[in-house]
Specification:
single chain, 396 residues, alpha+beta, Rossmann fold, Dna Ligase, domain 1, D-amino Acid Aminotransferase, Chain A, domain 1, 3 domains, nine-stranded antiparallel β-sheet, four-stranded parallel β-sheet, 13 helices, 17 strands, globular, ATP-binding, ATP-grasp
Length: 396
Amino acid sequence: MSTKPIFPGSTLGIIGINRNGGALISCAKKAGFNVGVYVDRAQPNITKMADFTLDGAYNDKEKLMQFGEACDAIIYQTPNIDSSVLRYLGQYAAIPQGINGLEIVQDRLMERAFLDQVNINIAPYVTVIGLDDVYQSIDSIGYPALLKPIQRGIGEQSMIIRRQSDITRAAEFIDTGTYLLESWIEHTHEYTMTAAVSGDDLQIFPVAELNYDDDRQLISAAAPAEVNDDMATEMRRIVKSVAASLQYTGVFSINFYVTSTGTLYVKNIELGLTSIANVYDSTTNVNQYEEQIRAVVGMPIHNITNLQSGLLMVVRNYQSRAIQRQWLLKDNWQFRFFNDVDGNDPQALLGFVWVTGEEDLQALQEQVDNTEVWNTKPAEPTTDEQADQGQSETNE
């Protein structure tokens, strides 16, 4: 990790972006940096604020070299960039976030070994390489179980095994390499704790509670969540332990499960910026983008203060008409919409809504529930639409 300060007027490169990348670019520009972006496919709606953009494959060494030589330092917004790409770029520019932490979180087996090493409670797991291993291991893991590839990355898939008959379907799922078979933790609550770290300097955002639908799509994040003192203390201990051992600089999050008996499990570590942590845009005095820039350029991390309670609501395509009505009505709601949404996908991410005010979280949730925007499901496709979708999938 680089300890050399990066001053305004320098060029900060960003590689590996998603829709949150626009907010990161804007924050870096506001801080006085020139910004270059490297993407593997054109995303002009996100990168238009950057000073320059390079489109190229992540294995195109000539373009990567061109990008590295044009930057003073390079950061990643999401952990989906292979660590070998950053090692190569490190020949030409500083990589202030470091690479060690990225290599750990990209490999589920390494991540779990790391969590074991720092005395953190995780779900039981075994490694498997074929169906025979799954059959032999499932009794020790129990049902339901999750089958996941060891390597994290874009486009990866996981499979849930609820009963023995499901294992036969894993024949198509398991391709080559090593997989992780992990117990599914039945839980009553899910939380995230986000922090920013730079050396010995650590600042922790208020804990956020997450709400998912039956398909495991995020509905909302609420902060600051109400957890008992003992659990909050343990969450903070875990965050501090990870920050002290991961050799990483910047913003990261730890996701938690809590069972009905109050047992706390760590689900995973996420490096970089997340959609969930957008809840702090309107609830704390500093957001994740500002803390990320401060950490990676060598500034002191800003002390975090909670200002108000708030909900971050995720808006999807099928909710567009309903949310437009609230856009005209709600004076305590803030909106961010994306203009590159796939209009044919009802589940595509349309934007975010921040619901804040003087009320507590329960009152804010009741306000949201009364609108019924998030209480309805997308309409089932007609026969013709189903046929079109099937034809499209066949053509692809």
